[in-house]
Amino acid sequence: MIGGTWWKGSGKVKDINYTQRLPSLSFGIDYGMKVHWDGTKDDPATVVILGEGPATNIEAGQEQGTFRGPDPSMVKYWTSDEFKWRDPSGAAPINQAVLQGDPDKSGIYVQIIRYKSGAYSRPHFHPNDGFVMVLKGTLNVGTDRKFDTNEMVAMPTGTFMQHFGKQVHYQGAKDEEALILVAGYGPATATPAEDK
């Protein structure tokens, strides 16, 4: 969820009065071959969907009965205040919360990275492609082995980009905090590549 409010339910009994409210910056998992339903109520929502295809929708039908909330065996979700940050104090200039998988291992991973104003990574590369969505603020990105904040390109909120595997880049926040969603197929280990 990157904007607005999303409402989530599961199973074949549909009752929008008991859907789970997922505010902006929430994260959820719809388990494969499990029945779920979702949508908006009073305001629009913007949702980023990540996964391994095919992602076809199969109508599951609807049943009568009582629905009292999403079944955690069908859907799982976290609001942003439930994210487990690497530095829970929030003092680190660059902080990370892994939402799914493990970026250091093979497989799909999803993480949120927060750059405080003035915090940057140094030139590096990853073995595989990574996909980035700027959720808040402006992310500044450079693509050279020489670190130079004057040569960075500004990526405002809502920008989507791809970091190609084995290609050097660095990024961070200049004047305001930046929050990004990063996903890909791991490992996403970083190899330093800076020319001093």
Structure report:
The structure is a single chain. The protein has 196 residues and is mostly beta strands. The chain has two domains: 78 residues, no CATH class; 109 residues, Jelly Rolls (Sandwich). It contains no helices and 16 strands. Strands 7-8-15-10-13 form a five-stranded antiparallel sheet, with no helix packed on it. β7 and β8 form a beta hairpin. It is elongated, with a radius of gyration of 19 Å.
CATH topology of the largest domain: Jelly Rolls
Global geometry: elongated
Query: Architecture of the largest domain in CATH?
Result: Sandwich
The largest β sheet comes out as: 5 strands, antiparallel
Q: What attributes does this structure have?
A:
single chain, 196 residues, mainly beta, Jelly Rolls, 2 domains, five-stranded antiparallel beta sheet, four-stranded antiparallel beta sheet, elongated
Q: How do the helices and strands line up, and which of them pair or pack?
A:
Elements: E1 3-10, E2 20-23, E3 27-30, E4 36-39, E5 45-46, E6 75-78, E7 94-100, E8 107-115, E9 124-125, E10 130-136, E11 138-142, E12 153-156, E13 160-163, E14 170-172, E15 178-186, E16 191-192
Antiparallel strand pairs: 1-2, 1-4, 1-5, 3-6, 7-8, 8-15, 9-16, 10-13, 10-15, 11-12, 11-14
